[in-house]
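Backbone-to-sequence.
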């Protein structure tokens, strides 16, 4: 008989939309003039919550995604992508355009800047999210309105479901900060250094009920800090994407890390081992043009460990 915990789904509640990513072609005569340049653009399903959910599903974790989509072509694109990935999609149709993320990369695939439009996600209400009872883990991203974050988080705590949160961005971290209180414990908070500057020092976050603070540092790896003191500090190197073809696109690497960490811990890995697994998933994502690598599997990730 299978372990009941192994078949319970991961519940992801967060943003879904389309990514529009532009990358200029390398040029030897770049003089810094502000002008249009030859390059490539691509449009694909994206959104932090959706990316995390798809990676979880591709790694083998049964996953349910709750999000908001518009009645438009971009919403249809997201619905098709979720079906192809084997996701259990629970989309709330809202009277707004499906969310979008427009990013400009440099010729090396690094992010120059981006604009995120999540007006559709902002229309989600607490009543749109199903009760998390029965979920193995609840994953939230801060594209959600604060009342939705608070309501589903509280419901998970009441049901004994561990909660993981992705801070997403510096502006979105501000909506999370007031919700970090001891009566809302977190298994993991994933954030960059600028996001943590908004959210607070790790010691303060541990005091607010965060068991693990995971600072993502890009090419420098990550720092995983547990509430248990010095023995719970883990400095983890990044896996060089050159091992799998080199850096192509940074889009979605952080989402892949979070999803892989959840998948690994759900399977019994300790938090540090799960973070090492997550870095391998990120390297594979960095070597692919797109937010989620379509051939990503648990075996492929483990081949880098």
């Amino acid at each position: 008989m299978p372990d009941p915990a192994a078949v319970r789904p991961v519940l992801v509640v967060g943003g879904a939309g389309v990514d529009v990513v532009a990358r200029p072609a390398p040029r030897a005569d770049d003089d810094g003039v502000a002008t249009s340049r030859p390059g490539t653009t691509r449009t694909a399903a994206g959104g932090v919550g959706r990316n995390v959910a798809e990676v979880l599903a591709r790694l083998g974790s049964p996953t349910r995604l709750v999000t908001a989509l518009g009645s438009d072509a971009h919403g249809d694109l997201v619905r098709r992508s979720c079906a192809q990935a084997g996701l259990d999609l629970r989309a709330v149709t809202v009277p707004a355009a499906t969310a979008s993320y427009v990013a400009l990369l440099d010729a090396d695939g690094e992010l120059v800047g981006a604009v995120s439009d999540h007006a559709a996600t902002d229309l989600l209400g607490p009543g749109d999210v199903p009760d998390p009872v029965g979920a193995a883990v609840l994953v939230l991203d801060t594209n959600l309105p604060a009342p939705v974050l608070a309501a589903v988080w509280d419901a998970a705590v009441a049901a004994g479901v561990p909660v993981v949160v992705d801070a997403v961005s510096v502006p979105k971290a501000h909506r999370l900060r007031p919700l970090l209180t001891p009566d809302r414990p977190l298994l993991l908070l994933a954030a960059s250094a600028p996001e943590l500057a908004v959210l607070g020092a790790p010691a303060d976050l541990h005091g607010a009920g965060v068991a693990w603070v995971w600072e993502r540092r890009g090419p420098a790896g990550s720092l995983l800090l547990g509430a248990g003191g010095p023995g719970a500090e883990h400095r983890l190197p990044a896996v060089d994407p050159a091992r799998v073809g080199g850096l192509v696109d940074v889009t979605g690497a952080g989402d892949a890390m979070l999803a892989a960490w959840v998948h690994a811990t759900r399977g019994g890995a300790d938090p540090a081992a799960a973070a090492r697994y997550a870095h391998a998933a990120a390297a594979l994502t960095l070597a692919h043009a797109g937010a989620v690598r379509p051939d990503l599997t648990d075996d492929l990730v483990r081949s880098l460990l």
